[in-house]
Amino acid sequence: ATPDTANLSPMPEGWTWAALEAVSEAVGGFAFSSTKFAETGYQVMKMANVRMGKIDLTQRSSFISDVTPDIVEKYSLREGDLVVTLTGTRKKRDYGYVAVVKNEDRLLLNQRIARVRPFSGMDSKFLQLAMQMEHYRDRFFSHETGNVGQGNVGMAAVTKEMISLPPLAEQMRIVAEVERRLSVVEELEAAVSANLQRATQLRQSILQKAF
């Protein structure tokens, strides 16, 4: 369907506005019972495992082996999928985190997380960047419901909202440039951290000599 762009800014030549449901397939997670969690099996991807731009499977790891093939087929995650958290603290924007699944396998999607699987012609990393943009997050959180403490959004917040979409080659150039700049930031952070550590050691040395 043609998107309603009446309240959206004009796009550069070759770009367009597109709802996520036009460029990806999205599904919500399954309510796995914690009573069936085991020591081994498929790892259950939970909200604690997802931060903005990052998946950390070491946090509150849970596994399940007693699961039917149809559930495995529908809720499995594969490389290139995106995951989005759908629950957090109301008005705090401490959810809506999005990250790309890399080379992890045997992962199943838990409830209150959405899986977004890009169609052909979409770069997963670009889609992650688009969903991190303030424009998208503003519209995402416009769907927020819940009581005083907990905020939630439904699948419409993921599938119906718009991203700005360039051609695939431009998507890849944007991703490469963002990654280049982030690598510079990471190098600076590492240098600052090393200098702080040296300063701490020097301070301790001075104190030892003083006393």
Question: What does it look like?
Answer:
- The chain has 211 residues and is of the alpha+beta class.
- It is 36% helix and 23% strand.
- It contains six helices and 15 strands.
- The chain has a five-stranded mixed sheet with strand order 3-7-4-12-8.
- Strand 5 and strand 6 (54-55) form a beta hairpin.
- The longest helix has 43 residues, at 168-210.
- The termini are far apart.
Structural key phrases:
211 residues, alpha+beta, five-stranded mixed beta sheet, four-stranded antiparallel beta sheet
What's the short story on this structure?
The chain has 211 residues and is an alpha+beta fold.
Number of helices: 6
Rg to the nearest angstrom?
A: 21 Å
Overall spatial form? globular
Count of extended strands = 15
Helix content: 25-40%
Distance between the termini: 75 Å
Furnish the topology, listing elements before pairings.
Elements: E1 16-19, H1 20-23, E2 24-28, E3 37-38, E4 42-45, E5 50-51, E6 54-55, E7 63-64, H2 69-75, E8 76-77, E9 82-85, E10 87-89, E11 98-100, E12 107-109, E13 113-118, H3 124-132, H4 134-141, E14 150-152, H5 156-159, E15 162-165, H6 168-210
Parallel strand pairs: 4-12
Antiparallel strand pairs: 1-15, 2-13, 3-7, 4-7, 5-6, 8-12, 9-11, 9-13, 10-14
